[in-house]
Amino acid sequence: MPQYAILIYEKETPGGVADIPPEVMEANISAGEKIAAMGVKVLHEHGTQPAATARTIRKDGLVTDGPFLETKEVIAGFFVVEAKDLDQAVAVGRLLPIMDGAVEVRPLR
After folding, report:
1. pTM score, two decimals?
2. pLDDT truncated to tens, each residue of the chain (109 aa)?
3. How many other CB atoms are found less than 10 A from the CB of residue 35?
4. How far apart are alpha carbons 45 and 6 in whole angstroms?
5. Which residue, among 53, 28, 49, has the nearest Cα to 103 in the 3D structure?
6. In DSSP terms, which residues pair with 44 in a beta bridge?
7. Which domains occur in the chain, in start order?
8. 3-state class of 58 per DSSP?
9. DSSP secondary structure letter of residue 59
């Protein structure tokens, strides 16, 4: 089955996970059951540390702090799923509660 990366982008909050409303946390937890019911297999799932812990390596080899020069949203987490097609992977992405960001679904090679 094809694999897809599902990237979750959100605006970073000072309190991190503590600033996530309870209803959003509950929706995140219940998404796993809904994804399984769709017949989609989650291969890997990861949250990320705050963007300040990231390092970016530029083409010239320069290493800078943070993920980007300018951004309002950072990668809050990602996972890889096996789904029958892109439409099904997008349906998985739609299950994820987004406070102030977006979800990107990208086919993998």
Report:
1. 0.80
2. 999 999 998 887 766 666 778 888 888 888 989 999 999 999 998 888 888 788 888 888 888 877 665 667 788 889 999 999 999 999 999 999 888 888 999 999 9
3. 20
4. 9
5. 28
6. 80
7. 3-107 (3.30.70.1060)
8. coil
9. T
